[in-house]
Amino acid sequence: MEVKITTKPRDTREHILEVAISLFAEQGYSKVSMRNLAKSVGISGASIYHHFPDKQSLYIDAVSHAFSDTAKAMETAFNHTGTPIERLEEFVTCFTELMGNDLDFRKLLHRELLDGDDVRLKLLAERLFIEPFKEVTVLADGLFPNSEPHMMAISIFGLVLFHYETERLRQFLPSTRPEHDQPSTISTHVMQLLTENKAFK
Amino acid sequence: MEVKITTKPRDTREHILEVAISLFAEQGYSKVSMRNLAKSVGISGASIYHHFPDKQSLYIDAVSHAFSDTAKAMETAFNHTGTPIERLEEFVTCFTELMGNDLDFRKLLHRELLDGDDVRLKLLAERLFIEPFKEVTVLADGLFPNSEPHMMAISIFGLVLFHYETERLRQFLPSTRPEHDQPSTISTHVMQLLTENKAFK
DNA sequence: GTCTATAGCCTGATAGAC
DNA sequence: GTCTATCAGGCTATAGAC
Q1: Does nucleic acid strand D have an atom less than 7 angstroms from the CB of A47?
Q2: Are B133 and A157 within 8 A, CB to CB?
Q3: Rounded to the nearest 10 degrees, what angle do helices B149-165 and B130-143 cross at?
């Protein structure tokens, strides 16, 4: 019985995707050329076209790949035991940590919010946000009876993400301090803002 | 005494800038070509180079132009009479309205947050955000004594902007309703979230 | 201040050898 | 599955006539 040993049999595709994710995140779709991507991967430009039919398909595959990794991680952010307020706190803490550790994902997300067409936005919603969004909406419905759950859930995601989004801008605003970028500081701030709200009335 | 009448003596530059703002906002720097911009303005590609030395300078001028318009409008968002809570409400309402009516500005802002270099971010901060940010920080310092004013101010801006940022994504999330995009709905929600907080303790 | 023409480069994508 | 060579077209920017 013969066992074929190939140095990199079908990992090339995966490798291309991983490099593509970081390049697309950092520079955006238009500024990444197939040649530069190929060079970063260590193959020729033509070789990419053996694995992907064109640039757009490659981009969509790369984004899907990045999102499915994060989607898996986000499932762990929910604990179904404990009081609603404890569950919200666990989600906010995990989500903030998750976002803090993945700059590429955050940039891809914001690029998609800006430039994604309806097909890609739908994919983004279904693969990534619908389930956590539903859970947060249910928690918000119980904890903030006077606010609309949908808007409250959006606000909770926004509170976390906006602090990261403005990370580079804030160095030029007054009284910025390094710990403002740390996940633990952000999640503590968000929970404080939320729980010293009607949640405890 | 002779008075020269020229149909469009020095408005061409202004015209280019206005068209450029909307194109850069909609498509981003890389996807806007000097040719297409020229065609939208109604002149030849070469003519743009009579008014601007290169594409980068044109982009910076366009962004500065868009930001200075909005900066002027943002000054009106502050009323220095009334209780702190009334003044916060007036700012949130005006700011939300202002953002809601200027899609180009919102897109340019988010593109700059993603891709702006330190020079451009500094310009953005100084020309646009430092003054309102200081005012909101002072209000936050008085109204939310247990939260850090800097983070609280960021959160207030973020609460408004994130609802707009996710406008197109939210059509694919549960229980979305058309009024969720209206400035009045957003500002009411944000104020409710904030004022039924410790501000009233 | 606007034009046409064009230089020189980079782009996405393909052909065909190995 | 990877390569080199190449095509056709778009890009920024310039030259020079009017």
Answers
A1: yes
A2: no
A3: 120
Question: Which of residues 25-54 of B have CB within 7 Å of strand C?
Answer: 38, 42-47, 50-51
Task: Return all residues near B113 (Cβ < 8 A) that are at least 6 apart.
Answer: A110, A165, A166, A168, A169, B121
Q: Which of residues 10-39 of B touch strand D (CB under 7 A)?
A: 32-36
Q: Please answer whether residues B117 and A155 qualify as being in contact, where contact means their C-beta atoms are separated by less than 8 angstroms.
A: no
Taking an 8 Å cut-off on Cβ atoms, the answer to whether B154 and A170 are in contact is yes
User: What is the reported pTM?
Assistant: 0.94
Residue A147 — φ and ψ, nearest 5°?
-105, 150
Tally of residues, chain B: 201
* CB spacing of A172 vs B137 below 8 angstroms: no
Q: Which nucleotide is nearest to A42 (CA to C1')?
A: D2
Q: Closest protein residue to D2 using CA and C1' atoms?
A: A47
Alpha helices in chain A (DSSP H): 11-27, 34-41, 45-51, 55-75, 84-100, 103-115, 118-124, 130-143, 149-165, 183-195
Q: Mean of the pLDDT values across residues B76-85?
A: 89
CA–CA dist A179, A142 (Å, integer): 32
Distance CA B145, CA B125 (A): 25
* Rounded to 5°, angle at Cα A54 from A52 and A58: 55
Provide the token pair at A67.
Answer: 């999102």
Q: Nucleotide D5: nearest residue by CA–C1'? A: A46
Chain B residues in contact with A137 by the CB 8 A cut-off are 174-175
Per-residue pLDDT of chain A (201 residues; tens, 9 = 90+): 554 444 444 699 999 999 999 999 999 999 999 999 999 999 999 999 999 999 999 999 999 999 999 999 998 888 789 999 999 999 999 999 999 999 999 999 999 999 999 999 999 999 999 999 999 999 999 999 999 999 999 999 999 999 999 999 999 999 999 999 999 999 999 999 999 843 333
- Predicted local confidence at residue A80, as pLDDT: 82
What is the reported pLDDT for A198?
Answer: 38
- Is the CB of residue B93 less than 8 Å from the CB of residue B188? no
